[in-house]
Amino acid sequence: MRTTLVMRHGAAPLKRLYVLLFIELETRRVQVTGVTAHPIGPWVVQQARSLTMALEDRVHLVRFLVRDRGAKFTSSFDEVFQADGARTIRAPVRAPPSQRLRRVLRRDGSP
């Protein structure tokens, strides 16, 4: 199972960057697929395609994708994973695990 999170990262004054990352829950492996100042739907879809191409040779395929409810996750994003047989699940509104992850990342050195 993978979960998806786009989070803000204050890199420099007046500059906000968004990080798209995927977390493999079984191994707790984090894969950062991209960083941008403007996370729009087509960019997120391209990152999803890149990830699925990188994972083609893996023995264990993605069965579930838990994702944020943000507008940047369009139906095209879901279709990328559904084409490989993964079921897309939208996280509940204000799901606590993503909030905890943000706190951990900030505590461990991220501003």
Short key terms for the protein model shown above:
alpha/beta, 5-stranded mixed beta sheet, 3 helices, 5 strands
3D architecture notes:
- The structure is a single chain.
- This protein has 111 residues and is α/β, with parallel strands linked by helices.
- It has a single domain, classed as Nucleotidyltransferase, domain 5 (2-Layer Sandwich).
- Helices cover 31% and strands 33% of the residues.
- A five-stranded mixed beta sheet has the order 3-2-1-4-5, covered by helices on one side.
- The radius of gyration is 14 Å and the shape is globular.
- The N and C termini lie far apart (28 Å).
Helix-strand layout with pairing:
Elements lengths: L1 E11 L2 E10 L4 E8 L4 H14 L9 E4 L7 H8 L4 E4 L5 H12 L4
Parallel strand pairs: 1-4, 4-5
Antiparallel strand pairs: 1-2, 2-3
Helix pairs in contact: 1-2
The proportion of strand residues reads: 25-35%
Quantity of strands, as a count: 5
What assembly state would you assign to the polypeptide chains in this entry?
A: single chain
Helix/strand order, N-terminal first: EEEHEHEH
In total, the number of domains comes to 1
The rounded Rg comes to 14 Å
User: Within the CATH hierarchy, at the fold level, what is the topology?
Assistant: Nucleotidyltransferase, domain 5
Overall mean confidence score, pLDDT: 77
What can be said about the biggest beta sheet? 5 strands, mixed
SS-based class: alpha/beta
Helical segment count: 3
Mass-distribution shape: globular
Strand order of the biggest β-sheet: 3-2-1-4-5
> What name goes with the CATH superfamily?
Ribonuclease H-like superfamily/Ribonuclease H
Cα separation of the termini: 28 Å
Low-confidence stretches: none
What is the CATH architecture annotation?
2-Layer Sandwich
Broad CATH class: Alpha Beta
Tell me the helix content. Answer: 25-40%
